[in-house]
Amino acid sequence: MITLLYFARLRESFGLASEQAELPAQVTDVGSLTEWLRQRGGVWQEELAPGKPVRVAVNQDMADLATIVRDKDEIAFFPPVTGG
Amino acid sequence: MTVRVQTEDFDMGAEILKLRQGNAGIGAIASFVGLVRDLHENSAITEMVLEHYPGMTEKALTEIVEEAKRRWNLINALVIHRVGTLRPTDQIVLVVTCCAHRHDAFASCEFIMDYLKTRAPFWKKEQTAKGTHWVDARESDETAVQRWAAISTN
Fold first, then answer.
1. Per-10-residue mean pLDDT for chain A, 84 residues long?
2. Does domain A2-78 have CATH number 3.40.1280.10?
3. Nearest CA in chain A to B116
4. Is A1 helix (H, G, I), strand (E, B) or coil?
5. Which end of chain A lies in a sparser environment, N or C, as judged by fewer CB atoms within 10 Å?
6. Structure pTM?
């Protein structure tokens, strides 16, 4: 199982703060995970479209498309940060 | 070195006193306080909600302070960032750096703020008369953080 977290605008668009999922066979990294989520269509396809400014963290460290995703990982999707 | 994410307000004077008490090696303290303004792109803000990523936010702030410690002679540092609902004039963030000399204190304080703005997972949602909207990240914040890569610490 992997844990997926969504924050800020993404949480509101998806209507979901977190979910657990079986790691799909074709998912090996952040890029393929994003593609898998995009296949849900609708807002998922829209918000996670290539070129959209979405940030990803794996186990609470900033990641990029090539970052490896493994079983039991916590993966968070969020917009660029705006604190301070 | 302390980082805190909290809904409660903070008292800068009391925090600084706690931080420097009993340490005669501290000769310079720099501080920064960020406040909620009442205007964003010409719309009047009535309130804002700050969201964070519990766990990762504290970790990111700790890493930023540790990086500042590697670059400057930082004796002690404090970062407090508020979350939840805030209104214009409310305090949002406090950064305090304690050093022997002013250069290290000023520089490390600015460094921590610049990194916090671009690396720490916080998101602002503003409420105006026109409704609510998520604040977009600013390119100038990214430019501000990138200049540190080129700056020598001495």
1. 98 98 96 97 96 95 96 98 95
2. no
3. A84
4. coil
5. N
6. 0.93
CB pair distance less than 8 Å for B53 and A76: yes
- The domain spans of chain A are 2-78
Q: Do A79 and B53 touch (CB under 8 A)?
A: no
Q: Does residue B21 lie in a domain region? A: yes
* d(C-alpha B77, C-alpha B46), whole Å: 32
Here the tokens at position B60 are: 């990111």
ipTM (interface predicted TM): 0.94
The number of C-alpha atoms within 13 Å of A10 and in the hemisphere containing its C-beta is: 25
Give residue-wise pLDDT tens across range B49-78: 999 999 999 999 999 999 999 999 999 999
Beta strands of B2-154 (E only): which ranges? 2-6, 28-35, 39-40, 43-52, 74-82, 84-86, 91-99, 122-128, 131-134
Contacts of B59 in chain A (CB under 8 A): 60
Whether residue B116 lies within 8 A of chain A, CB to CB, comes out as yes
